[in-house]
Design a protein that fits this description.
Layout lengths: L5 H15 L8 E5 L12 H19 L6 E11 L3 E3 L9 E3 L8 E10 L2 E11 L17 H15 L4
Length: 166
Amino acid sequence: MIRRPKFLTLLALLTSVSAATPMVSNAAVMVTFTKADQYIDVPFAPSDREATLKTLKEHFEKLGSKLPSGQDLKIEVLEIDLAGRAEPSRMSGANDLRVLRGGADWPMIQLRYSVEAAGKPVKQGEAKISDLNYLNHLNRYPSSESLRYEKAMLDDWFKKEILSAK
């Protein structure tokens, strides 16, 4: 058995934890979905709908973690139209297929947002976020990533509208 000095073991542990653990902001992120059962284009099956909304909520939380300490993000999602169009699967029991053509099937998310510090608004507004050219530029998310076009679109909006307002 090789014995290492305790400080080297601690150093190795801290290095591995800090490399694997993202910086966590003290920002609180609150996401609400207004009339989610009436959105233009989210999956019809309840489990698929819940998974889609959960994925979006988690992505907003990830974005909110980039805010400076002491700032909180509130998002109220008003409308969702996912990239592509859902087409019924021809196979029995299979999920619908989402077909991306790059025509009039771009992603769109409409929301109200507020960034607050000490309970006072720093920035707030309503946005209708869309990406008409979603298939015509590089996407930083892999093709296996759920809602990759929506995430890229939200990343761009957040960087431009929220982070630039610091």
